[in-house]
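User: What would this chain look like folded?
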Amino acid sequence: MTEISLAAERQAWLLKERRDAYLAALRVIDLDLRRSRYRREGKQDKLEQVESFWPKVERVRMSMEALIGVNMFGSGAARRLADEWAVALESDDEAEPARVMRHIQDQLRRELNPGLGDEAEGPRRPR
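Assistant: Here's the prediction, encoded as structure tokens.
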């Protein structure tokens, strides 16, 4: 009985670590997309507001922690998508980061909500 409860406890801990890593990655992605959009749309005041709230040092720290978390606790698919995200950010195609972000959201939703089917879709932002 003790082995079973220890295994269940460890599984719950791993799932929490994975979830926390994924949420950290999604925060970084959202911040990257906002900054990119504000820059592209010439919304300098909004960009300055975001960058004052999250200065470069903080954004780098957040990115490193998210990447480390995904690499330590994420699935193989999530790790590959993290690599795709890094490439998409450097892309000249403005639609590429949004496309990769949708793939990331879909993958993480499936992993964190197994067996829920369409119920796992959750609310989506307009694109």
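Residues 2-121 form one domain. If you want, I can go into more detail on any region.
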